[in-house]
Amino acid sequence: MTLKANTSPSYVLVTAAYNEEALIENTIQSIIRQNIRPKKWIIISDGSTDRTDEIVIRNAAVHDFIRFIRITEDHPRNFAAQALAIRIGYEALAELQFDFFGNLDADITFEPNYFQNLIEKFTSRSDLGLAGGGIYERYNGTFKARPISNPRAVPLGVQLFRRECYDSFGGYLPLPHGGSDWHAEVSVQMKGWSVASFPDLKVFHHRPTGTADSLFKYRFGQGLMDFAVGSDPAFEVVKCVRRIPQKPILLGAMTRFCGFLWSYMSMKQVLVSQEFVKYLRRDQRARLRLFSR
Protein backbone atom coordinates (compact mmCIF):
# COMPACT_ATOMS: atom_id res chain seq x y z
CA MET A 1 0.00 0.00 0.00
CA THR A 2 1.22 3.49 -0.88
CA LEU A 3 -0.36 6.16 1.29
CA LYS A 4 -1.68 9.14 -0.64
CA ALA A 5 0.14 12.42 -0.33
CA ASN A 6 -1.47 15.11 1.80
CA THR A 7 -3.44 12.54 3.78
CA SER A 8 -2.90 11.48 7.36
CA PRO A 9 -2.78 7.69 7.87
CA SER A 10 -5.49 6.43 10.19
CA TYR A 11 -5.54 3.37 12.40
CA VAL A 12 -8.11 1.39 14.36
CA LEU A 13 -7.69 -0.92 17.34
CA VAL A 14 -9.44 -3.92 18.84
CA THR A 15 -8.99 -5.08 22.43
CA ALA A 16 -10.40 -8.35 23.76
CA ALA A 17 -10.63 -8.08 27.55
CA TYR A 18 -11.64 -10.53 30.24
CA ASN A 19 -11.65 -9.36 33.89
CA GLU A 20 -9.09 -6.61 33.34
CA GLU A 21 -10.33 -4.08 35.92
CA ALA A 22 -6.86 -3.79 37.49
CA LEU A 23 -5.09 -2.69 34.31
CA ILE A 24 -7.45 -1.60 31.56
CA GLU A 25 -7.92 1.96 32.84
CA ASN A 26 -4.21 2.63 32.38
CA THR A 27 -4.36 1.19 28.88
CA ILE A 28 -7.31 3.41 27.99
CA GLN A 29 -5.61 6.53 29.35
CA SER A 30 -2.46 5.64 27.42
CA ILE A 31 -4.42 5.61 24.16
CA ILE A 32 -6.28 8.80 25.03
CA ARG A 33 -2.89 10.51 25.47
CA GLN A 34 -1.58 9.44 22.06
CA ASN A 35 -0.50 12.24 19.73
CA ILE A 36 -2.54 10.49 17.05
CA ARG A 37 -5.60 8.73 18.41
CA PRO A 38 -7.22 5.76 16.68
CA LYS A 39 -10.11 6.48 14.35
CA LYS A 40 -12.07 3.84 16.27
CA TRP A 41 -11.23 1.51 19.14
CA ILE A 42 -13.43 -1.52 19.72
CA ILE A 43 -13.09 -2.88 23.25
CA ILE A 44 -14.76 -6.26 23.69
CA SER A 45 -15.57 -7.59 27.12
CA ASP A 46 -15.55 -11.35 26.72
CA GLY A 47 -17.99 -12.15 29.53
CA SER A 48 -16.11 -10.20 32.21
CA THR A 49 -17.45 -10.58 35.75
CA ASP A 50 -15.51 -7.74 37.40
CA ARG A 51 -15.61 -3.95 36.76
CA THR A 52 -14.13 -4.15 33.26
CA ASP A 53 -17.42 -3.28 31.56
CA GLU A 54 -18.05 -0.34 33.90
CA ILE A 55 -14.61 1.14 33.24
CA VAL A 56 -14.88 0.85 29.46
CA ILE A 57 -18.45 2.18 29.31
CA ARG A 58 -17.49 5.19 31.44
CA ASN A 59 -14.63 6.10 29.11
CA ALA A 60 -16.66 5.43 25.96
CA ALA A 61 -19.27 7.93 27.16
CA VAL A 62 -16.60 10.65 27.10
CA HIS A 63 -14.56 9.61 24.06
CA ASP A 64 -16.60 8.75 20.98
CA PHE A 65 -13.75 6.89 19.28
CA ILE A 66 -14.16 4.13 21.90
CA ARG A 67 -16.90 1.57 21.32
CA PHE A 68 -17.86 -1.12 23.83
CA ILE A 69 -19.08 -4.59 22.86
CA ARG A 70 -19.91 -7.40 25.28
CA ILE A 71 -19.85 -11.12 24.43
CA THR A 72 -22.32 -13.13 26.49
CA GLU A 73 -22.33 -16.54 24.78
CA ASP A 74 -20.74 -19.44 26.67
CA HIS A 75 -17.53 -20.75 25.12
CA PRO A 76 -14.23 -22.36 26.18
CA ARG A 77 -11.83 -20.01 27.96
CA ASN A 78 -8.66 -20.46 25.93
CA PHE A 79 -6.50 -18.59 23.45
CA ALA A 80 -8.94 -19.31 20.65
CA ALA A 81 -11.56 -17.24 22.46
CA GLN A 82 -9.33 -14.17 22.23
CA ALA A 83 -8.81 -14.60 18.49
CA LEU A 84 -12.55 -15.04 17.97
CA ALA A 85 -13.26 -11.88 19.98
CA ILE A 86 -10.77 -9.95 17.85
CA ARG A 87 -12.53 -11.21 14.75
CA ILE A 88 -15.83 -9.88 16.10
CA GLY A 89 -14.20 -6.51 16.71
CA TYR A 90 -12.72 -6.39 13.23
CA GLU A 91 -16.07 -7.21 11.65
CA ALA A 92 -17.53 -4.22 13.52
CA LEU A 93 -15.00 -2.03 11.69
CA ALA A 94 -15.71 -3.40 8.22
CA GLU A 95 -17.49 -0.32 6.85
CA LEU A 96 -14.92 2.14 8.19
CA GLN A 97 -12.11 3.57 6.07
CA PHE A 98 -8.69 3.17 7.69
CA ASP A 99 -5.09 2.35 6.79
CA PHE A 100 -3.90 0.25 9.74
CA PHE A 101 -5.48 -2.30 12.04
CA GLY A 102 -4.03 -3.15 15.44
CA ASN A 103 -4.70 -5.65 18.19
CA LEU A 104 -4.03 -4.27 21.67
CA ASP A 105 -3.97 -6.18 24.95
CA ALA A 106 -5.61 -4.62 28.01
CA ASP A 107 -2.41 -4.59 30.09
CA ILE A 108 -0.25 -2.36 27.85
CA THR A 109 0.80 1.29 28.01
CA PHE A 110 2.89 3.44 25.66
CA GLU A 111 4.56 6.80 25.45
CA PRO A 112 2.31 9.42 23.76
CA ASN A 113 4.18 9.30 20.44
CA TYR A 114 4.13 5.52 20.09
CA PHE A 115 1.57 5.12 17.30
CA GLN A 116 2.77 8.23 15.49
CA ASN A 117 6.31 6.83 15.38
CA LEU A 118 5.17 3.33 14.50
CA ILE A 119 3.12 4.55 11.54
CA GLU A 120 6.17 6.50 10.37
CA LYS A 121 8.04 3.18 10.26
CA PHE A 122 5.37 1.90 7.89
CA THR A 123 5.42 4.95 5.66
CA SER A 124 9.19 4.66 5.25
CA ARG A 125 8.94 0.98 4.19
CA SER A 126 6.35 0.04 1.59
CA ASP A 127 7.06 -3.68 2.11
CA LEU A 128 6.27 -3.58 5.83
CA GLY A 129 2.98 -5.34 6.51
CA LEU A 130 3.15 -6.08 10.25
CA ALA A 131 5.08 -4.25 12.96
CA GLY A 132 5.16 -3.33 16.64
CA GLY A 133 7.38 -2.02 19.39
CA GLY A 134 9.67 -3.77 21.82
CA ILE A 135 8.21 -5.27 24.98
CA TYR A 136 9.46 -3.91 28.31
CA GLU A 137 8.54 -5.63 31.56
CA ARG A 138 9.15 -4.78 35.20
CA TYR A 139 12.21 -6.42 36.77
CA ASN A 140 13.05 -5.46 40.37
CA GLY A 141 10.89 -2.37 40.05
CA THR A 142 12.40 -1.17 36.75
CA PHE A 143 11.10 -1.66 33.21
CA LYS A 144 13.65 -3.50 31.09
CA ALA A 145 13.57 -5.05 27.62
CA ARG A 146 12.25 -8.59 27.55
CA PRO A 147 15.29 -10.94 27.56
CA ILE A 148 14.27 -12.93 24.49
CA SER A 149 13.25 -10.99 21.41
CA ASN A 150 13.20 -11.60 17.68
CA PRO A 151 13.36 -8.68 15.24
CA ARG A 152 10.95 -10.59 12.97
CA ALA A 153 8.42 -11.33 15.71
CA VAL A 154 5.75 -9.01 17.11
CA PRO A 155 3.74 -10.12 20.18
CA LEU A 156 0.01 -10.56 19.63
CA GLY A 157 -0.95 -7.78 22.03
CA VAL A 158 0.80 -5.03 20.02
CA GLN A 159 0.53 -6.19 16.42
CA LEU A 160 -0.26 -3.43 13.91
CA PHE A 161 -1.02 -4.37 10.27
CA ARG A 162 -1.56 -2.55 7.06
CA ARG A 163 -5.20 -3.18 6.37
CA GLU A 164 -4.67 -4.97 3.05
CA CYS A 165 -1.96 -7.09 4.67
CA TYR A 166 -4.33 -8.27 7.40
CA ASP A 167 -7.08 -8.95 4.90
CA SER A 168 -4.72 -10.89 2.62
CA PHE A 169 -4.41 -13.87 4.98
CA GLY A 170 -7.92 -13.87 6.42
CA GLY A 171 -7.19 -12.59 9.92
CA TYR A 172 -6.27 -14.30 13.16
CA LEU A 173 -6.63 -18.07 13.28
CA PRO A 174 -8.26 -19.28 16.53
CA LEU A 175 -5.80 -21.73 18.08
CA PRO A 176 -6.65 -23.27 21.49
CA HIS A 177 -3.06 -23.14 22.84
CA GLY A 178 -2.15 -19.77 21.35
CA GLY A 179 0.06 -18.92 18.41
CA SER A 180 -2.35 -16.68 16.50
CA ASP A 181 0.37 -14.02 16.41
CA TRP A 182 2.96 -16.50 15.12
CA HIS A 183 0.52 -17.77 12.50
CA ALA A 184 -0.13 -14.18 11.43
CA GLU A 185 3.59 -13.38 11.15
CA VAL A 186 4.32 -16.38 8.95
CA SER A 187 1.14 -15.91 6.90
CA VAL A 188 1.94 -12.32 5.97
CA GLN A 189 5.47 -13.31 4.96
CA MET A 190 3.99 -16.03 2.76
CA LYS A 191 2.04 -13.22 1.07
CA GLY A 192 5.24 -11.24 0.42
CA TRP A 193 5.08 -8.76 3.30
CA SER A 194 7.82 -8.02 5.81
CA VAL A 195 7.51 -8.23 9.61
CA ALA A 196 9.54 -6.14 12.05
CA SER A 197 9.66 -5.17 15.70
CA PHE A 198 11.31 -1.94 16.82
CA PRO A 199 12.94 -1.97 20.28
CA ASP A 200 13.24 1.83 20.23
CA LEU A 201 9.44 2.03 20.42
CA LYS A 202 8.82 0.96 23.99
CA VAL A 203 5.77 -1.09 24.93
CA PHE A 204 5.25 -1.37 28.69
CA HIS A 205 3.70 -4.69 29.70
CA HIS A 206 2.09 -4.55 33.16
CA ARG A 207 0.87 -8.11 33.65
CA PRO A 208 2.24 -9.39 36.99
CA THR A 209 4.52 -12.42 36.91
CA GLY A 210 2.50 -15.61 37.46
CA THR A 211 2.99 -18.23 40.13
CA ALA A 212 5.28 -21.23 39.51
CA ASP A 213 2.27 -23.46 38.91
CA SER A 214 0.69 -21.17 36.33
CA LEU A 215 4.09 -20.68 34.69
CA PHE A 216 4.42 -24.45 34.29
CA LYS A 217 1.01 -24.70 32.64
CA TYR A 218 1.78 -21.75 30.38
CA ARG A 219 5.14 -23.14 29.22
CA PHE A 220 3.70 -26.62 28.68
CA GLY A 221 0.94 -24.99 26.63
CA GLN A 222 3.58 -23.23 24.53
CA GLY A 223 4.95 -26.65 23.62
CA LEU A 224 1.46 -27.72 22.58
CA MET A 225 1.22 -24.54 20.52
CA ASP A 226 4.58 -25.15 18.80
CA PHE A 227 3.40 -28.59 17.71
CA ALA A 228 -0.04 -27.35 16.61
CA VAL A 229 1.46 -24.80 14.19
CA GLY A 230 3.83 -27.40 12.71
CA SER A 231 7.20 -26.35 14.14
CA ASP A 232 10.09 -28.51 12.93
CA PRO A 233 11.15 -31.03 15.64
CA ALA A 234 14.87 -30.37 15.13
CA PHE A 235 14.32 -26.64 15.38
CA GLU A 236 12.28 -27.13 18.55
CA VAL A 237 15.09 -29.10 20.18
CA VAL A 238 17.73 -26.47 19.35
CA LYS A 239 15.48 -23.61 20.41
CA CYS A 240 14.76 -25.12 23.82
CA VAL A 241 18.37 -26.19 24.40
CA ARG A 242 19.65 -22.70 23.62
CA ARG A 243 17.29 -21.26 26.23
CA ILE A 244 18.24 -23.63 29.05
CA PRO A 245 21.32 -21.59 30.23
CA GLN A 246 19.12 -18.55 30.75
CA LYS A 247 18.23 -19.15 34.37
CA PRO A 248 14.97 -17.18 34.53
CA ILE A 249 13.45 -19.57 32.01
CA LEU A 250 15.40 -22.77 32.70
CA LEU A 251 12.29 -24.59 33.85
CA GLY A 252 10.28 -22.90 31.11
CA ALA A 253 12.48 -24.20 28.28
CA MET A 254 12.36 -27.76 29.56
CA THR A 255 8.62 -27.64 30.20
CA ARG A 256 7.95 -26.19 26.75
CA PHE A 257 9.83 -29.04 25.11
CA CYS A 258 7.86 -31.53 27.22
CA GLY A 259 4.64 -30.06 25.84
CA PHE A 260 5.91 -30.41 22.29
CA LEU A 261 7.15 -33.96 22.88
CA TRP A 262 3.87 -34.99 24.52
CA SER A 263 1.94 -33.75 21.48
CA TYR A 264 4.33 -35.57 19.16
CA MET A 265 4.12 -38.86 21.06
CA SER A 266 0.34 -38.56 21.36
CA MET A 267 0.06 -37.95 17.59
CA LYS A 268 -1.90 -34.75 18.11
CA GLN A 269 -3.21 -32.93 15.05
CA VAL A 270 -1.39 -30.02 13.45
CA LEU A 271 -3.97 -27.22 13.18
CA VAL A 272 -2.61 -25.23 10.23
CA SER A 273 -2.40 -25.90 6.50
CA GLN A 274 0.29 -28.07 4.97
CA GLU A 275 1.36 -25.08 2.89
CA PHE A 276 1.94 -23.17 6.11
CA VAL A 277 3.92 -26.04 7.68
CA LYS A 278 6.17 -26.37 4.62
CA TYR A 279 6.91 -22.65 4.58
CA LEU A 280 7.56 -22.51 8.33
CA ARG A 281 9.85 -25.54 8.38
CA ARG A 282 11.79 -24.36 5.34
CA ASP A 283 12.49 -21.10 7.15
CA GLN A 284 13.38 -22.87 10.41
CA ARG A 285 15.78 -25.25 8.68
CA ALA A 286 17.48 -22.32 6.95
CA ARG A 287 17.95 -20.71 10.36
CA LEU A 288 19.38 -23.96 11.72
CA ARG A 289 21.92 -24.05 8.90
CA LEU A 290 22.99 -20.51 9.68
CA PHE A 291 23.28 -21.37 13.37
CA SER A 292 25.40 -24.48 12.65
CA ARG A 293 27.91 -22.35 10.77
Kindly summarize this structure in a few lines:
The chain is an alpha/beta fold. The protein is 42% helix and 20% strand. The protein has ten helices and nine strands.
First-residue to last-residue Cα separation: 37 Å
Shape: globular
The topology string of helices and strands comes to: EHEHEHEEHEEEHHEHHHH
Q: What is the domain total for the residues?
A: 2
Q: Give a count of the beta strands, DSSP E runs of length 2 or more.
A: 9
Question: Could you say what the CATH topology of the largest domain is called?
Answer: Spore Coat Polysaccharide Biosynthesis Protein SpsA, Chain A
Largest sheet: 9 strands, mixed
Beta-strand percent range: 15-25%
- What is the average per-residue confidence, as pLDDT, rounded to a whole number? 91
Low-confidence stretches: none
Quickly count the helices. Answer: 10
**Class by helix and strand content?**
alpha/beta
CATH H-level superfamily of the largest domain = Spore Coat Polysaccharide Biosynthesis Protein SpsA, Chain A
Supply the CATH architecture of the largest domain: Alpha-Beta Complex
CATH top-level class of the largest domain: Alpha Beta
Percentage of helical residues? 40-55%
Radius of gyration: 19 Å
